Amino acid sequence: AAAQAILDEQAAAAEAAIAQATMDAEAALAAKTAEAQAAAQAMLDEQTAAAEAAIAQATMDAEAAMAAETAATEAALAEASAAADAEAQATAETLAAEAAAQAAEAAIEEAAAVQAAADAAAAAEAQAAIDAQAAVDAAAAQAAADAQAAADAAIEAAVEDAAAAVGNAMSETDKRLCELMETPMRAGGELVECN
After folding, report:
1. Environment class of residue 182 by beta-carbon count within 10 Å: exposed (0-12), middle (13-18) or buried (19+)?
2. Are 182 and 191 in contact (CB under 8 A)?
3. What is the pTM of this model?
4. How far, CA to CA in Å, does 187 sit from each of 169, 177, 191?
5. Neighbours of 34 (CB within 10 A)
6. Residue-wise pLDDT tens digits, 53-102
7. Cβ(194)–Cβ(179) under 8 Å?
8. Quick one: pLDDT at residue 98?
9. Which of 31, 22, 83 is nearest to 14 (CA)?
10. CA 32: distance to chain centroid?
11. What is the separation of C-alpha 41 from the centre of its chain, rounded to a whole number of angstroms?
């Protein structure tokens, strides 16, 4: 009975030890499990935070890249628009310059035509003046010739009239002298005929 009691006591002690060991093992397992779960949760939280941070950073980078690309696109569009405006301005200036050159050429041609007309008018006026002067000179020469001819005719007529008058006067004088000498000459027996 004593041996059985000792055996029972040892069996109870062994069972108690086993129960205690089991409890300790379960407690240790629970602690390890809780620690592992906490570590896993912490790691998961850290990974989640890192992933969220990476996602946020990637989103920010993507937004920044998109904004930069948008700004670059807008700048390129603005530059293209400015280039188009500059080209349009240059084209307009070129067209204006061509129009001004054509207007200047037309003005030069018109001025040349006016100058040619003026030269022609001046030449015609000069020719008319020359013709008028020639006509005046011819008329003056003709008038002078006519006057000279009239003067010569008048002088010749005057000379003829004077000669006739002188001849008449001399004839009358001779006749008078003849008449004065007629009586004495007839008295002397000479034949005298006074015409």
Report:
1. middle
2. no
3. 0.35
4. 28, 16, 10
5. 10
6. 999 999 999 999 999 999 999 999 999 999 999 999 999 999 999 999 99
7. yes
8. 94
9. 22
10. 94
11. 81
CA distance 20 to 14: 9
Report in angstroms the alpha-carbon separations of 121 from 124, 128, 177: 5, 10, 80
Q: What is the rounded distance in angstroms from the CA atom of residue 192 to the CA atom of residue 184?
A: 10
Residue 177 amino acid letter? L
Cα distance between residue 78 and residue 88, in whole Å: 15
Which of 162, 192, 159 has the alpha carbon at shortest distance from 177?
A: 192
Cα separation values, 192 from 167, 176, 180, 184, 188, Å: 21, 13, 11, 10, 11
Per-residue 3-state assignment (H helix, E strand, C coil) for 67-114: HHHHHHHHHHHHHHHHHHHHHHHHHHHHHHHHHHHHHHHHHHHHHHHH
CA-based end-to-end distance of the chain: 250
The DSSP annotation for 114-130 comes to HHHHHHHHHHHHHHHHH
Listed as ranges, residues in the chain with pLDDT below 50 are 187, 192
Report whether 194 contacts 175 (CB < 8 A).
Answer: yes
Give dist(CA 11, CA 18) in Å, integer: 10
